[in-house]
Design a protein that fits this description.
single chain, 286 residues, mainly alpha, 13 helices, globular
Length: 286
């Protein structure tokens, strides 16, 4: 496989909602965002799939060196080889790639987070930085768009945390802040049990409301002139907001089963959102 084909296959195999948002981009931007997504998946898989912590740390260190080689023009891995042509045209800063790896290392350094201040650093590194890099790839004219990208990354990550709370707990990780668990009388080990009590629902409702605030803030920051360029992020926001609504409508039973949207529903939301943004763009141009 070519480097681009390697990244395309990794993105497609993941089944992520991000893949649906990429479909609406022109070829160069699509190749760039697919390579970025493949990089994120690759380093995330290290901490999720490598059981020996020392080996996981060694692999992350290798990726730090690979990012150094990428920016020196000597990438070895298919993913960084696919990324290389896009670094300069889209002004993708090295520090952001280092931050993403730092975020993955936090999964090795922390199995829980004492408060939202600590968790927000993880969310920034794991998601907001990816949002900022994505905004560069999609294109923007107003720097307020970077604030939108930051807040949208936070919203998407907080939605993921709520959706995956049971699955993460089974891996020994709790991403909901410990002080908020204490406030609701919830113990971390309860996330490993398929039972939803009222105290869990209250805790999860609080997490959902925080995520919604970040979605709203992201929308407020995004200038009208950059909305169409940033349509993949807005497609992601539409898909994940729908997922959040489904979680709430299901009574926040995320400990009992994983709430999912079907591929056809994701595609429908993506198409509908892209169509709406196209109409908005035409109205502004008229």
């Amino acid at each position: 496989m070519s480097p681009d084909e390697y990244c395309e296959e990794k993105a497609a195999r993941s089944g992520s909602s991000f893949y649906y948002a990429f479909r609406f981009l022109e070829p160069d931007r699509r190749r760039a965002i697919t390579a970025l997504y493949a990089f994120c998946r690759e380093v995330d898989d290290i901490v999720d799939e490598v059981s020996e912590e020392s080996i996981a740390r060694t692999k992350l260190d290798w990726w730090r060196q690979e990012i150094e080689r990428l920016f020196a023009g000597e990438p070895r891995h298919p993913i960084t080889q696919a990324l290389q042509p896009h670094i300069a045209p889209f002004d993708l800063g090295r520090e952001y790639f280092d931050e993403i790896i730092d975020g993955m290392q936090m999964d090795l350094d922390y199995d829980s987070y004492p408060d939202f201040t600590t968790l927000s650093l993880y969310c920034y590194r794991a998601a907001s930085v990816v949002g900022i890099l994505s905004a560069h790839i999609f294109g923007y004219r107003d720097r307020r768009t970077l604030k939108y990208a930051h807040d949208l990354g936070m919203a998407l990550q907080l939605t993921n945390i709520l959706r995956d709370v049971h699955e993460d707990a089974m891996r020994g990780r709790v991403y909901i802040p410990m002080d908020e668990l204490g406030k609701h009388g919830v113990k971390p080990e309860e996330f490993q049990v398929n039972i939803t009590a009222d105290r869990h629902r209250a805790l999860f409702a609080e997490q959902a409301e925080r995520a919604r605030r970040y979605y709203d803030r992201a929308e407020e920051h995004l200038p009208d002139g950059d909305r169409y360029a940033q349509r993949p992020g807005l497609i992601m926001a539409a898909i994940y907001r729908t997922l959040l609504d489904e979680i709430e409508d299901d009574g926040f039973r995320v400990l009992e089963h994983r709430v999912r949207l079907t591929p056809i529903r994701k595609l429908w939301i993506a198409w509908r959102t892209a169509r709406r943004l196209k109409r908005e763009q035409r109205r502004r141009a008229a």
